[in-house]
Specification:
- This protein has a 3-stranded parallel β-sheet with strand order 1-2-3, with helices on both faces.
- The chain has 6 helices and 3 strands, in the order H-H-E-H-E-H-E-H-H.
- Helix 1 packs parallel to helix 3 and helix 3 packs parallel to helix 4.
- By secondary structure, the chain is α/β, with parallel strands linked by helices.
């Protein structure tokens, strides 16, 4: 996957960008290769640096069956790493909505979940 290779080639840049941070929010769509490949690499790097990490992710639409399989495999991999993962399934959100409303709903849902997680990090530390 190109995203994974790009992140692996940029490990030093990733480390230098986040060396003074204590929380990182990763936002990506899964299933296409870029976020699917890069998120695990970035998470592993920042976790080894002691940075708390949250991932806000979207899953592909139902008609993107090949991408959905890739996305669910990636999601399983991320959950095995014990990363705080918030997922919005675009396929489930399309009922009686147009595309713009589905994306808006995804953004709102993920923003609420991430904000709640960030408050927990703030209160813990």
């Amino acid at each position: 996957m190109r995203g994974r290779l790009a992140a692996q080639e940029s490990l030093q840049v990733i480390q230098s960008e986040f060396d003074s941070e204590n929380v990182l929010v990763l936002v990506a769509g899964l299933g296409g290769g870029t976020g699917t490949g890069a998120i695990p690499v970035i998470f592993d790097v920042v976790q080894s640096m002691g940075v708390n990490c949250v991932a806000a992710l979207t899953l592909p639409f139902e008609h993107e069956s090949g991408r959905r399989k890739i996305a669910f495999d990636a999601l399983s991999e991320l959950r095995s790493r014990r990363i705080a993962v918030f997922v919005h399934d675009l396929a489930a959100s399309m009922e009686n909505k147009n595309l713009l409303d589905a994306f808006q709903g995804a953004a709102e849902e993920l923003a609420e979940a991430v904000n709640a997680s960030l408050l927990e990090f703030q209160q813990a530390g």
